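Q: what sequence does this backbone want?
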């Protein structure tokens, strides 16, 4: 069975990415042997959606499915934007690109030349990029210096980036690389940073230990358990470990950041309320097409 995922002729954020996925027959469906991603004229893929797209395409290639990315506008459209972002530097080489793969990487040519962009970086346990949290933090500060809380935001941002990246190294258990990137959208007065891995996912690594250590938490729905992870720092390694995500959330809340988490079959959007992420401010989307791993995106206001 061929699966076609067609994106709209508009800016594609995470919600539009998920909608396009949901309108398909499911790229990871056992009956699917070929997946085509279509990008019409006028389509623009935002960085947090691009990270998830890259992870999904490489997952599918790793399962020996035929994968094609069809850019109707060629390099004049979103293909050129993705190239500048470093998307093709990390795309599996066996994936077909129409009309053709870019002749060269504009990310490599102009890397670091745009202060509003941190090009997609690979997260690989065998080749750790120790400077990545610093680059992400510096890019954020270049854009958020007008915020009255800029000084404290810098320290919080570094902690968030370092913890999210470390979580990918420590828990993903995957041979497929993870990725991180940052983009400033001045027109929308916001900054997005995304970290993605293709491993087992938070729930798959956490629930087995909760069955015996904390039955009350084990019986929670995935949505409620996810909220508790970010509120309490629940860990499969015991109470003294695994609090990194809680620390990330506490700092993100302080700066009024939205948090978007994609699990293998669910997506949860958390918005701050009363100084924390609460179940009643969590928007949960169940029954989504399979996407391996855990994909986390934070969105900050530039001048808030």
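A:
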């Amino acid at each position: 069975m061929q699966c076609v995922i067609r994106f709209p002729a508009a800016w594609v954020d995470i919600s539009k990415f998920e909608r396009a996925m949901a309108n398909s027959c499911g790229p990871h469906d056992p009956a699917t042997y070929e997946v085509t991603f279509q990008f019409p004229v006028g389509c623009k893929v935002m960085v947090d959606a691009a990270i998830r797209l890259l992870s999904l395409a490489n997952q599918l290639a790793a399962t020996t499915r035929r994968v094609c990315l069809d850019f109707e506008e060629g390099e004049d459209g979103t293909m050129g934007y993705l190239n500048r972002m470093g998307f093709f530097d990390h795309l599996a080489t066996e994936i077909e690109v129409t009309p053709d793969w870019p002749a060269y990487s504009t990310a490599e040519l102009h890397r670091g030349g745009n202060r509003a962009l941190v090009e997609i970086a690979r997260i690989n346990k065998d080749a750790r990029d120790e400077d990545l949290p610093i680059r992400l933090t510096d890019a954020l500060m270049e854009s958020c210096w007008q915020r009255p809380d800029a000084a404290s935001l810098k320290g919080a941002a570094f902690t968030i980036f370092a913890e999210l990246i470390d979580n990918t190294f420590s828990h993903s258990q995957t041979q497929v690389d993870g990725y991180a990137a940052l983009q400033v959208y001045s027109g929308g007065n916001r900054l997005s940073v995304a970290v993605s891995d293709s491993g087992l996912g938070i729930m798959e690594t956490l629930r087995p230990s909760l069955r015996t250590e904390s039955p009350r938490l084990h019986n929670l729905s995935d949505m409620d358990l996810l909220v508790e992870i970010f509120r309490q720092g629940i860990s499969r390694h015991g109470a003294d470990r695994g609090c990194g995500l809680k620390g990330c959330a506490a700092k993100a809340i302080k700066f009024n950041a939205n948090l978007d988490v994609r699990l293998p079959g669910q997506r949860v959007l958390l918005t701050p309320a009363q100084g924390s992420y609460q179940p009643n401010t969590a928007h949960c989307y169940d029954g989504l097409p399979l996407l391996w791993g855990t994909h986390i995106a934070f969105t900050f206001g530039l001048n808030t």
